[in-house]
Design brief:
The complex is a heterodimer of chains A (330) and B (245).
Chain A: H1 3-22, H2 26-51, H3 60-77, H4 81-103, H5 108-127, E1 138-139, H6 157-178, H7 181-191, H8 193-198, H9 203-229, E2 231-232, H10 234-237, H11 240-253, H12 260-279, H13 286-301, H14 305-314, H15 323-329
Helix pairs in contact in A: 2-6, 2-9, 2-11, 2-12, 3-4, 3-9, 4-9, 6-9, 7-9, 11-12, 11-13, 11-14
Chain B: E1 4-15, E2 18-29, E3 33-37, H1 44-51, E4 59-64, E5 67-68, H2 74-79, E6 82-84, H3 97-105, H4 112-126, H5 141-153, E7 159-163, H6 171-186, E8 190-194, H7 198-201, E9 207-212, E10 215-220, H8 222-226, H9 229-236
Parallel strand pairs in B: 3-8, 3-9, 6-7, 7-8
Antiparallel strand pairs in B: 1-2, 1-4, 4-5, 9-10
Helix pairs in contact in B: 3-4, 3-5, 4-5
The chains are: A mainly alpha (330), B alpha/beta (245).
Amino acid sequence: MSRRAKLVWLAAALVALLFPLVAARPTWQNTAILMLMTAQMGVAWNILGGYAGQVSLGHAAFFGAGAYVSTLLSIKLGLSPWLGMVAGAGVSAGLSLLVGWPCFRLKGHYFAMATIAVGEIVQAVVNGWEFLGGAVGFYLPLQEKGFWGFVFNRSKLPYYYIALGLLAFSLLVNWAVARSRTGYYLRAIKDEPDAARSLGVSLTRYKQTAMVISSALAAMGGTLYAQKELFIDPGSTLSTSLSIKMALAAIMGGVGTLAGPVVGAVVLTAIEEASRVAFGGTGRGTDLVVYGGLIVVIAVFQPAGILGLFASRRGPARAAPAEAPAKEAA
Amino acid sequence: MSPLLLEVRGLTKRFGGLTANEDVSFSLSAGEIVGLLGPNGAGKTTVFNSLAGFFAPTSGDILLEGRSIAGLPPERVAALGVARTFQIVRIFKSMTVRENVMVAALLRHRAVPVARRKADEALAFTGLSGRAGDPAGQLTVAEQKRLEVTRALAIEPRLLLLDEVMAGLTSSEVHEAVEMVKRIRDRGIACVVVEHVMEGIMPIADRVVVLERGRVIADGPPAAVASDAAVIAAYLGEEYRAPGP
């Protein structure tokens, strides 16, 4: 990491740590929490979708797995949601193995379509399964039992710092993966899968590794969501629009980069909140219109995302389309 | 005679009704350079794809030091010491030149810093050190081909399959490529070279195998093959007829 990048990260961390102390209004804090949670989801998605280039549009299934596992363990067995978070990550990783085994036989768009199907199937199963709350979902008891209870209703601050901590942890995992052997292999698989194989890289093994890490992190975000909202149902934790949101945060900021999903999540959440304020309660579904519009704009004008704008000023963007530098050279 | 490194026995590959290779047999000793020649569509790249694990042969066998590798996936074949380049270059464009080679070096050296050092050694060997930090997409075609060779070498193979690494190069670049292949052989790595550029392959090949319509029509030292009437008719043209005895 360059000196400049380190300084930017340090500054961002300071701002994030001090923000809720400066901005005391609950609505601001709530928006900031949404940004952190969206960023964390985006980072989780980015490991598989950005670094390994395997675009999943069913990641809500993993997010939901985290939310449902911790909630069930908490309601039925009285287990601390913190342990539920770990269990949820494990269940989600296991689920990703089941999903990956057939889906990784497909490439490119076909993989993306298969993951949409997986997301929809999981949603349909939960909708029809009484044990999992069916379409009604679950309410979690609104009573504080200290840190291990993972319920805080007097102030939003604990959620803010937990969300920040989880984002920091996810970024740390991402950073460690990116600079490891696996990280190099994932980028190679994304660029030229056949060439990667010819150099001894097993596609299935490393795609699966990325998916296990990605789904486990997504599940941890799911547990945090459940504990913050104290209510989960298939619509809020398993929907395809949530899957798209995870992908969009990363794509908007810049796929395959550490900071991309964070930048994307901040901008995306700001746009969402603004449209919610503008359209009010009648605006249900406007977020989908916004997502659709953003996807078109990014695909047409800025495939490298927001970070790509800065990169192209300093030189050819790493994530920019391959033709761009060639044209400049010619 | 040195022990056989590679033995191809009766290799046949069909795609539906199309027979790309039929009963192809040849062998290679350690440290040998064999040229694989033939007109377009003769099945040279299909042989490569079968050797490198990208195709499973319809019948026949491929032995690497006596062990069958036919039908193994590419990553396993690579781990056993067979490296390849691609006819149409497939470099990792979002990475730097050094990172491209590191991906390969990581096969034998799991620690990233060690792989980086090995990658730099390989880049020095092929003369690309000056470009190590550049994005791979910025290289010229000749450099991209050299990068593919560098990457293949970095998996520390016993057998290197070079697929038209000299096509489209200027004559001085061909000369450099020839020198590089010789230095690779001098390191004890055997090479199978698919090439249309005769100036590139004839002077360095120990033996030449000529394919036509999927079958082997000649196998022998370059001089003998170049004077073979069938080969001249199929492929070379009168220009390359070796002076008669």
